[in-house]
């Protein structure tokens, strides 16, 4: 009796393997079924998907005109949001651009210590960390020095 059960199990396993192999080799040609094909019962209402809001990353990619490019520097600093906003306002960023590109500016200064602001493929400003100060050289607004941790910009060179 056990020998007969073993043969049955062996034959069933072989059959399952052969069917699986046949499906694998030939494919099952299955296609996705729409809800209406399954008979949803009654009328189905077709709704358009809700419009998706653009993420900050998508806005940055769509804008593409302004970029923050990290550059190597000997010093780095973890600037506060207030410092980033003050720096970016002096460069001439709008509030919307500060929201979208502020993290790029912060990350560039935190990890590389220097950032180049590109506008339409040309360098508009360079921002660099030097000790407790941030040096900004802007094509349209001149040179400025920002004291990290608050404090106004000044156009004078720091005393050493």
Query: Mind summarizing the main beta sheet?
Result: 6 strands, antiparallel
Distance between the termini: 99 Å
Task: Calculate the mean pLDDT score and round it.
Answer: 76
- Care to count the β-strands? 6
Helical content band: 25-40%
Gyration radius (Cα, Å) is 31 Å
Structural class: alpha+beta
Question: What is the percentage of strand-forming residues?
Answer: 15-25%
Describe the structure concisely for a colleague.
The chain has 160 residues and is α+β, with helices and mostly antiparallel strands.
List keywords for this structure.
38% helix; alpha+beta; single chain; 6 strands; six-stranded antiparallel sheet; 160 residues; 4 helices
Structure description:
Strand 3 and strand 4 (133-138) form a beta hairpin. Helices cover 38% and strands 23% of the residues. With 160 residues, the protein is α+β, with helices and mostly antiparallel strands. It has a domain at 65-154.
